[in-house]
Amino acid sequence: MTETTTSQKFKIRDLPSLLVKTYKAWDAENPFRLSAVVAYYAILSMPGLLVIIVNLIGSIWGEEIVQGELTNEISSALGRDAATAIETMISETRDGEKNVISTIIGIGTLLFGATGVFYHLQISINQIWKIDLVPQQTFWRMLINRARSFTFILILGFLLLISFIVTAGISAFSKYLSSSFPEVIVYFTYSLDILLSIGMITVLFALMYRYLPNAKIKWKSVWIGAFITAMLFVLGKFLLGLYFGRADFDSTYGAAGTMVLILLWVSYSCLILFFGATFTKVYAEKYGFGIQPSIELKGNEND
Predict the structure, then answer these.
(1) Is the Cβ–Cβ distance between 255 and 11 less than 8 Å?
(2) Coil/strand/helix, residue 291
């Protein structure tokens, strides 16, 4: 894949045509199949991922506080029943007496499982960006990709920690202002919460687009795509929150209702993520930035 040399500059009036082109390219990649695959691995990765994040942030913020904050976030997105089920999942994964060998095996399983969702996100974005991998991937390459995926777990934990700190600061500031401006404080807090969510999600998506795929891409393309993705994600989160709050999955799926709910949520998130990745690719190609494979994945020249 070669970079284009066009010197066009982005204009707001170009956005509709970019979105139409993005939708066609996104639909051609069968995103529902890709999102279903990632959702499956997300279910397998969830216990390890959440335990690592709780332990990581909890060492600084306090494990009970972090688990409570995560439960509140999950509850707002998926409902209280799903949050309770996930909280139980975390507790059962962390609890229990284990000997040294089982502990080592457990840690290895947690790490391998927790990195699975990011590893398969990497594969999916590579496909969308037409990044051709080396046909015979070595064991060391797999370990490097898994290590890269684990790095994103650390990044996610760091962003959550920052989010908790900022949220606590906003809450304290809001209480101070409420004594003088009781009528506007609700709008102030709500607006700051939305801006915080968009900002944190934009940073997370930007880092994912920049470093997760096996590709070289300009930051300018990355930030545009990440911001569009974050806006769609926040909007969809609000709409899905309304839907999940009214839907009764337990009456339809019984004990499996929570798992179905999580699968739907992750699938939706991946659809948005892949749409943003496609938009990033369309934007990069149109405005001359291009997306190049990483050097280590170019393979042999004679292939």
Answers:
(1) no
(2) strand
Tokens for 246, please give them.
């009214």
pTM over 0.90: no
**End-to-end CA, the chain:** 15
> The dihedral of CA 83, 256, 271, 49: what is its sign?
positive
Q: In degrees, to the nearest 5, what angle opens at C-alpha 174 toward C-alphas 171 and 175?
A: 90
Look up tokens 């300018």; give the residue: 220
Alpha-carbon distance of 8 to 18, in angstroms, equals 13
Of 11-15, 197-201, 292-296, least confident by mean pLDDT is 292-296
Mean pLDDT (the chain, rounded): 75
What CA–CA distance (Å, rounded) separates 203 from 65? 24
Collapse the DSSP code of 215 into the 3-class scheme (helix H, G, I; strand E, B; otherwise coil) and give the result: strand
The answer to whether the CB of 236 falls within 8 A of the CB of 264 is no
Contact 270, 35 (CB under 8 A): yes
